[in-house]
Structure formats: C-alpha cells, structure tokens
Amino acid sequence: MLPAVTLLLELPGVQQLLTTTPRSVVTDAVRTVIDVARGAPYSAPANDTEWMAAITEQVTVRQLPSLRRLINATGVVLHTNLGRAPLAAAALRAIQDVASGFCNLEYDIATGARGSRHAHCSALIAELTGAEDAMVVNNCAAALVLALNSCADGREAIISRGELVEIGGSFRVPDIMAKSGATLVEVGTTNRTHADDYRRALSPRTGAIVTVHRSNFTLEGFVAAVPPRDLAAIAAEGGVPLIHDFGSGLLLDLAPWGLSGEPTARDAIRAGASLVLMSGDKLLGGPQAGIVAGRADWVGAMRRNPLARALRVDKLTLSALEATLALYRDPARAIAEIPALAMLTAPVAGIAARAEQLAASLRAAGLSASTRAVDATVGGGAFPAARIPSAAVVLEVQDADTAAARLRGARVPVIGRIADGVLLLDLRGVPAELDAELGGLVAGALS
Ligand SMILES: *Cc1c(COP(=O)(O)O)cnc(C)c1O
Description:
This protein is of the alpha/beta class and 447 residues long. It folds into 3 domains: 5-63, no CATH class; 71-81 and 342-446, Aspartate Aminotransferase, domain 1; 88-337, Type I PLP-dependent aspartate aminotransferase-like (Major domain) (Aspartate Aminotransferase, domain 2). It contains 19 helices and 18 strands. The strands form 5 sheets. Strands 5-13-12-11-10-6-9 form a 7-stranded mixed β-sheet, sandwiched between helices. It has a 5-stranded mixed β-sheet with strand order 2-14-15-18-17. It has a two-stranded parallel sheet with strand order 1-16. Strand 3 and strand 4 form a beta hairpin. Helix 7 (140-152) packs across helix 12 (296-304). The two termini are 35 Å apart. Bound molecules: pyridoxal-5'-phosphate. Pyridoxal-5'-phosphate binds at residues 139-141, 167, 171, 212-213, 215, 245, 247, 279, 290, 381.
C-alpha cells in the first residue's frame, strides 16, 4: 500500500524542503516518486527515511537547469556540441557591466539621438582585419544568408563543386545558399576547379562569386582550387563581389604554436574578398556571432537589408565580442586571456604534469588510473588535420561505456573520450583551475 501525496507532504523533511523550494516542484516530485514506486513495488521506499531520500533526489533533478556547465575532457577544444569557445574573463565582465543595467545599444551618446546597434564592434573589427567596414550578426550562417541576399537575390551565385560542403549538423552550403534567394551556379568538379570554370560561368545574371573555406576536412591528391586572390580578380573582372565564407575567425597567426596553414582574417581581406564572413565562437574565442568584414559599400548594403533586422545580435553578444576583440590589440594578451587560444597554445609538458598529478590523486582515491600521451584537435571548423600534442588520464575501468555514462551523470558532467576501449580524460580543454574539481567528480562517480 503506497502512501498518499498528502501524507508524504506532511513528512518533517518535506516540510523543511518546502521552506526553500516552490510547492509545485515538491508536489510534482512526490507524485513522481509515488508513480515510480507503483511501477516497481519491490524496490519501493520502505520507510520515511527512504521516501525522503527519493523525494529529495527528485527535487534536485527537477531543479537542474537544462543548460549546464560541464567539463570538456574530450580533447576537442572547440566542440560545437559543448558550446564552442569559453569566454574570456574580460568578456564576462563586459556582459555583467552592460547587461545588468541599461546601455547605449541603439543610442548615440554624443548627440542624444537614436544610434545603430550595427555600429558597435565595427571599427574594432576593421582595425584588427584591415577591412574598410564591418558588422555583426547572429552567426556565420546568418552572415552568409545576409551576404548572399544582399549581393545576389534573384541572381546567380557561382561556387565550386568542391565547396558545396556540410559544415556541421544543419549547415549545408547549397541549402543555405538556396534559402538566400540566390541561384546556385556550380562550377568545376569535386576535386578540381580552375579559374576558367569561374570565368565561363560569369554572366549578366551573376550576383556574386562565393568561396567557402574547407573548415572541417582536407582534400588531397589530384586537386586544384583557385586561391581567393585570383578569385577576387575574376570577380572584379565580372563586376561582382567575392564573398569569402572563411569560418574560423582566426585573427592571429598561430604558426609559432604549430598550427599553420590556415589564413587569418587579415589575409582573407588582403587577398581581395569583398566580404569575409566568420564565426565569433570558433578560433576567435568569443561569443556566438557572425562577423562580416569587407568593403564599405557591400557591408552598407548588408546593413540596409531588412533581413539584417531578423538576424541581429543582442547586447550580451556585442559586449562580449567587443571585449574579446579588444584583447587582440595585444596579441600576447589575446593568447594568454582568451581561453580557446590559451588552451590550444599551452605547452604539452604542463598538461602532462597535470595529468600525472590527477592520476595520482585518483589512485589515492582507490581508482586505477595512469596517463598517456595523446593528440587533441582544434575542433570547431579549423585546422581539421592538426593534431595537438596533449596528455590524458587513462581510467582503467571494467567497462568504458558504463564509466563514461557515470561521469556524464556527475553533479558537473565530465565528458571524456573512449579510444581502443579505454576511457580517456584529455586535459587540453580543461583549465588547470578545474583539475581539483575534476578529480573529485571522477572519484565520486567511479568509486
Ligand atoms: C563554422 C562555419 C560556418 C557556420 O558558422 P556558425 O557561426 O556556426 O553559423 C560557416 N562557414 C564555415 C566555413 C564554417 O567553418
């Protein structure tokens, strides 16, 4: 015989809970616990203490936010599923400062008149990329839709068949282009596209030439592509803009840290693209945003496009982005203070030492743990072939899948990676100040 809801609500422990928790949450938790007990009568709580424990657990689960912080021990630093770039402290302070009260989002402080939200960040982006003008929209996909719609609505957009790619989950270049109102004109082949392929496709109907950076794959072997500089010249011959969907948002040359071969935004502008599009939350290391840098006339056309209203960014994004961008004025500071860059450039020796320490603390807690040299990756659509030396704690467990599930179920979920049947915690994407917490979570979940 199961107790009634009203009876359980009378328990002193539940009465105590009600002083801190909304009544609806507690009542729903009690109902759920009774329903669960009805479904599994043999494991139903047997006394008040057990009922209380089940109710407390339900109340906790119900109050967990849907969007939660977690520890990224996957070794993929800019993991799209895990929120891409963590924000710099300066960006968090800017959000706090701007969003906790009112701000000049669309207000010109000098004149007291209405201002434009598209004015924020523009000068800073122009300064950092060498572009004439810039604007910010919701993400890079939005930037591509807006750029195409502004340049080639009802006209043709020429793109190489080698660049009709899928970037991630729901971003397929041909689908996005079709939605922008431009008609896709495919040229070349999957592996080889030549300057003449573009030239032959130019016509009075052409609205733009588009080139999309190979963010998440490499093409090797019998391949040919037209570099952006040559494409810019062809676009100029045809009197149309070159839109360069550049993706990563790399603003600094990371070659000194072993990450080479990708252009920076400044390179892309210098090569002559009319519009360069990039994400704010990939290698740039800021909030989700679509950054457009390029020629003043084309950026102006994008700003005036009514669609810009639907794709606009909010003040939280703008404040975080501006603070992140400002760090780039001093490259050493950007590397040190922008978490994505700090993680990608951290010397491997330090990471290995941290892994040793963490493994030792887990052994002291009774777990079987060792360390291993591994390769981390950048993720987030940049340097797809780069392998970054890293170090991982190897958790020697009976069943890696079960252990991984337990780690995900921790109070702060820990996401590791399984390789060759063992569970690894790659520390490249774990800030050092989280090591102690990580140790506690792993020990708690696995012992
Ligand atoms: C990541 C990426 C996009 C999509 O960017 P979002 O900011 O996620 O919309 C578009 N183009 C390229 C080349 C990319 O790498």
